[in-house]
Amino acid sequence: MTGDARIRRGRTRVESPSLARTGRLLVACPDKPGIVAAVTGFLYHRGANVTTLQEYSTDPEGGRFFMRVEFTVSTPTELDAGFEAAFEATVAGRYEMAWRLSRAAHRKRTVVLVSKHDHALLELLWRHARGELHADITAVISNHEDAAAHAAEFGVPFHHVPVDKGDKGPAEARILELLGDDTELVVLARYMQILSADFVRHFPSRIINIHHSFLPAFVGANPYHQAHVRGVKLIGATAHYVTADLDQGPIIEQDVTRVSHRHSPEELVRLGRSIEREVLARAVQWHLEDRVLVHDGKTVAFT
Amino acid sequence: MTGDARIRRGRTRVESPSLARTGRLLVACPDKPGIVAAVTGFLYHRGANVTTLQEYSTDPEGGRFFMRVEFTVSTPTELDAGFEAAFEATVAGRYEMAWRLSRAAHRKRTVVLVSKHDHALLELLWRHARGELHADITAVISNHEDAAAHAAEFGVPFHHVPVDKGDKGPAEARILELLGDDTELVVLARYMQILSADFVRHFPSRIINIHHSFLPAFVGANPYHQAHVRGVKLIGATAHYVTADLDQGPIIEQDVTRVSHRHSPEELVRLGRSIEREVLARAVQWHLEDRVLVHDGKTVAFT
Amino acid sequence: MTGDARIRRGRTRVESPSLARTGRLLVACPDKPGIVAAVTGFLYHRGANVTTLQEYSTDPEGGRFFMRVEFTVSTPTELDAGFEAAFEATVAGRYEMAWRLSRAAHRKRTVVLVSKHDHALLELLWRHARGELHADITAVISNHEDAAAHAAEFGVPFHHVPVDKGDKGPAEARILELLGDDTELVVLARYMQILSADFVRHFPSRIINIHHSFLPAFVGANPYHQAHVRGVKLIGATAHYVTADLDQGPIIEQDVTRVSHRHSPEELVRLGRSIEREVLARAVQWHLEDRVLVHDGKTVAFT
Amino acid sequence: MTGDARIRRGRTRVESPSLARTGRLLVACPDKPGIVAAVTGFLYHRGANVTTLQEYSTDPEGGRFFMRVEFTVSTPTELDAGFEAAFEATVAGRYEMAWRLSRAAHRKRTVVLVSKHDHALLELLWRHARGELHADITAVISNHEDAAAHAAEFGVPFHHVPVDKGDKGPAEARILELLGDDTELVVLARYMQILSADFVRHFPSRIINIHHSFLPAFVGANPYHQAHVRGVKLIGATAHYVTADLDQGPIIEQDVTRVSHRHSPEELVRLGRSIEREVLARAVQWHLEDRVLVHDGKTVAFT
């Protein structure tokens, strides 16, 4: 692929002029009366216009309340740090909120980890090139060299970090170094190495994995083979946040496809690839759009 | 079926004690900043607690804004007429709102019209008996006598209103008389008579029809036969509000199922029945829960 | 419901005149060349016309071969016992076939067991009344009395067989007595008692259970509650043959529906009911049409 | 992308050694008794082993019969021209069969036509590179230059054939020249030029189009915009063979995805892309595997 073609692709990502004036407030707090009024009142008095508001309460009486508000302001500068200071002082403190402001124009710095199976990686690179994923994919990291050519096609730096089975420490250390301080999302696009609890701790609810199975049906290795042995009539895939507890992290999205006794394990793998690509891409997109909150081992997904 | 059994069924509808304290505000108005803050501020100052809020704007700049807010108050009396007067005076007038308050405890008076195919009727009667549909089914009306026994099983009055092909006026007049002034929802559960524009005008966005096709694919008669001739690989059903323009009313819900060349028109009909039942039941439930607003020939469905 | 209505329903089951001339051969044998030719050659020489042929081999070289052939003969008498004797002598012996002839006109004698949840039972009774299930439902048996009225509505004998938790033997013995020698299919339509291995042994691949979960995801009790705790995005149901190994029997059919964090365990139960009804009804229909063979803990479902 | 990477990809297409010994018989003829026996008897006597047999009859009495038989022989030479001569002489003539033998090892020479939207093209190139599509993609042809880089990445020759709106003749003539005598499949992967009846006549049931709509719901241009105006709750895509009658050709595959009032026409387009990719890829794969027969404006798809 020529450099020209790559640039042309980049140019197709025409950004909405209003993106720079769009903010998103993500809020979690104990539920009690008045939260929505307080937040939307605050926005109104700053001249902001609510464009989408989604909320959820685990229990209106004594439960936990979650909210995602997307809004526009009249000029980008109104989303400066002053906004956050005012919100903390006026609203957040009063309601004991865990909260953050996300600026829609910001592209989250994202790194994709992959092993040999490249379909999930390619789906992400493609959607990104097409302007569907509002992220900055800063690197592809792999314990194999196979993905190098794909990364190059899409103009993304590639890093080969081999893993020593006997001592995974150095590889994780090297990956952490590559991720640096400013990586905001790590996507495991069929990365087949288990990450240590210590590694995971650096990125709470910021590592998305695609599990090639409909969790919790076939936890662990070779799920398509397990599915074939059991003779199931549907196979699926699950995108989830990674926690120290393997395959148990909060589920972001799942989907399935119909199969029959006619499908060999190899064909299940092929059919599974389509679902894995779709499910991972949806989960990553929702994360990039600040649609997914985590609570009590589950996600609240404002999709 | 014995009377005892019928009563036992009735008893299974245990109502949530909080239902009497739950209200729903349905709002449509020109979009401009401050609407959410105004509505939720109003609720907060009356001591109400927002439990669900959903909104949608066709365009944040100059479009039309829609909102559904579900909230609880501390005693049922706070939902009395005073609430409506206060909301009109304080909020609704200022924002040129078309709005209404719905009390969750109220069961909408519902009449089901049916012809010979009874599957959609029975689905509704069953779900109702099981407590899934929060309505008062006050009558079943049919141009045939076939459905009488089913209505009797479920303890619902049945009225046979034959239709004279040459002059449908008297039948419609009789049905209007049976519906009276207080029927809030009319469900056409495979009622095969076309209703006049005049009849429809009495119940704007209050007549739900199940069209045995994935509209707008096979408008009109014998859609399964049409689908078979065309060799489609999916068949579906559509629940929509009835307007004077036949089969063109706002779509509430649709679903499909997979078929193949092996299916005869008769088998398509059989498979279609399952979808029709499910799609109609969903649409009726959403209507009963005040989840569906109509705008510009389409629905805004807060599901 | 009046007796007349019941009879009228019965009358709607107009049977195809060709059903009496339709046979189905179900075959399983070691795979080797010539099987299809031998079976279809046999049918041709007896003047039969193959209308549907489905086959499957676990491995063309040394695997096991399965076939379902539906065919018509010119008069019903050609499906007499002579047919079976001739097939055994001419074809089946040579290929070491496990096989049977099923006559399409025959309605399998079917008994439905149910506990308190009646939705799956009612779905079966309805589809049966509507002529969709080609069976003879000879009895409904329950450990509770709740289903008696429903059975009566549909004119099916009802038997109440309470289960003593301390000693389930007498209840199983009573059920076996009611099933007698001629029951061909037992459907567990949400029957919440575990059947003993001894009981199951009487009906190999003849007891169909609906498991209110997408197996093997949530084996055991309260799967909807488990699903809610885990925060899955799809819930499902599984119809399977019952074996001595609880919840591990060969899967006949599965389906799922989409859910979100908004759904309470109670709502998952309600949504699950629709899937359970549909999945069980499909599995029972396929069994009645002799579409399901069992091999190695899995089904070969010629659907 | 480097040449090395391209070669590595090519190498991943490891072909099953048995592919060279696998044949497929595709048959259509008037239905009468004995066809299956005749065909499978013929295969048996030549030492072939049937691995899959699928058949369908529009009507066992006087209808048209279709069959797909996949079988293996002991050496590739047994699939030489002698096979076809023998089948014609022994079986096909007797039953007035329209038939052909397809050798599984043969990769159909395939050309992809595309305009500006590249997602469907890329899906095909990817699946092909991954070994999922058993074809020889000999060229990409476009009326725009945008796809050139993609074609180059995957090592496929690219031809730019601009279309003069006033006179499309020269462009079609040029495309026909490029297709030559040996192109076996033409895929319109969002090629937005209408092909003349004359052009289509050269490739009966050999041009596959992806229509970005659930046909026949939104025939013609801008279907997603039409779907948005109508407020449908599902959008879909349709892969069909191209006939002289625009958008009316036999449907090979369809699928849908759920949408709501929240989706703008642009978002429908984005969601639609995923379905289009998937549906077109399935249709092309089935065609390449000789699974699709055409009859009476419909497909018989042995999937």
How would you describe what is shown here?
4 copies of one chain form a homotetramer. With about 300 residues, chain A is of the alpha/beta class. The longest helix of chain A has 24 residues. In chain A, helix 4 packs parallel to helix 9 and helix 8 packs across helix 9. In chain A, the strands form 3 sheets. In chain A, strands 7-6-5-8-9-10-11 form a 7-stranded mixed sheet, with helices on both faces. Chain A has a 4-stranded antiparallel sheet with strand order 2-3-1-4, covered by helices on one side. In chain A, strands 12-13 form a two-stranded antiparallel sheet. Chain A folds into 2 domains: about 90 residues, ACT domain (Alpha-Beta Plaits, 2-Layer Sandwich), CATH 3.30.70.260; about 190 residues, 3-Layer(aba) Sandwich (Rossmann fold), CATH 3.40.50.170. Chains A and C meet through strand 11 and strand 13 of A and strand 11 and strand 13 of C.
At the fold tier of CATH, the topology name of the largest domain in chain A is Rossmann fold
Main sheet summary of chain A = 7 strands, mixed
Question: How many individual β-strands of chain A?
Answer: 13
- Summarize the helix and strand pattern of chain A as letters: HEHEEHEEHEHEHEHEHEEHEE
Instruction: Please tally the helical runs of chain A, counting DSSP H or I stretches of 4 or more residues.
Output: 9
Low-confidence stretches of chain A: 1-14
Sheet-strand content of chain A, in percent, reads 25-35%
- How many domains make up the coordinates of chain A? 2
Q: What's the architecture of the largest domain in chain A, going by CATH? A: 3-Layer(aba) Sandwich
Oligomerization state of this entry? homotetramer
Question: What spatial form of chain A do the alpha-carbon principal axes imply?
Answer: globular
- CATH class of the largest domain in chain A equals Alpha Beta
User: Span from first to last CA of chain A?
Assistant: 35 Å
Average pLDDT of chain A works out at 92
Strand order of the biggest β-sheet of chain A: 7-6-5-8-9-10-11
Helix content of chain A: 25-40%
Largest interface: A-C, 29 and 29 residues
